[in-house]
Amino acid sequence: MERREDAWNSKILGRDMKICIYGNGGMPILAFPTRYGSPYEWDQEGVIDLLSPWIEGKKITVFTVDSVDHETWFNYQGDIEWRANRQEAYYEYIIDEVFTYIQQHGFAGILPLCMGADSGGLSAMIMFLRRPELFSGVLSMSATYDAKIHYDGWLNSFLYDNSPVDFLPNMSDTHPYIDLYNSKKIAVCSGQSFDEQHELASAKELVNILHWKRICVWADFWGEDSGHNWYWWKLQIGHFLPWLLGERE
Asked: How confident is the model at residue 1 (pLDDT cuts 50, 70, 90)?
């Protein structure tokens, strides 16, 4: 399997950001880490090994990115407005720099899939919902979709744009994104164990909003044994990926 690493100093974030690439061909997958995770997390947790048949078969190439979660969602002692603005800067970094990087490295015109679990699931959903024309689908696992929970209920315009349960209900029913969403594949998953209760409630809230907006979504709520960890997320990735790639209905 081809593995490589790259990094550059992000003009938007003003710091070095790393990216790891696994494979060479097929559908690009933009993969986000969990809270405090790194671009190496998907490899260290065995997800890349799980995906190796698709990678070696040149059906997918996985791009795992860095995050600034420690500066945004979980920087509880930081200035609240700076944190919100920093989250918007991360969104701009992914859209303006990472998406361009993927397109320029052999995937011009091929729209990536977004994937992530925990805070990475929120990142994946934010990118897809805000710019559906740039992505072919999204898999979000065990995420919370209300950004305000990290900000004591506070909201400004930047945080609003990064809080799906806030901005999606206000989208007009005639907005062109509605049809665009329905031309893509959206999967939302959560377990029902004791450590997934917040994520489960948030996933159900998001799914209800999507249904209200007549947006198609595969909502899958796993059993009470399905916990908030990579053992379950790997099972879920293996479950959803064939559908996301069009290998099965």
From this structure: confident
**Structure confidence at residue 48 as a pLDDT band (50, 70, 90):** very high
Phi, psi of 214, deg, nearest 5: 60, 40
| Mean pLDDT score across all residues of the chain | 97
Q: What is the per-residue burial (b if ≥16 Cβ within 10 Å, else e) of 139-149?
A: bbbbbbbbbee
In a domain, 58, yes or no: yes
C-alpha to C-alpha distance for 32 and 233, rounded to whole angstroms: 13
Q: Is residue 33 part of a domain?
A: yes
Only one residue has tokens 């992530």, namely 116
Tell me the two tokens of residue 16.
């070095």
Q: What angle, rounded to 10 degrees, do the helices at 80-92 and 119-130 form?
A: 60
pLDDT at 153: 93
Query: What's the CATH number where 166 sits?
Result: 3.40.50.1820
153 Cβ neighbours under 8 A, 6+ residues apart: none
Supply the pTM of this predicted model. Answer: 0.97
Alpha helices, H only, the chain: 41-44, 47-56, 80-92, 99-104, 119-130, 157-160, 164-167, 176-182, 197-212, 230-244
- Give the pLDDT band of residue 248 (cuts 50, 70, 90): confident
Please indicate, yes or no, if residue 191 is contained in any of the structural domains. Answer: yes
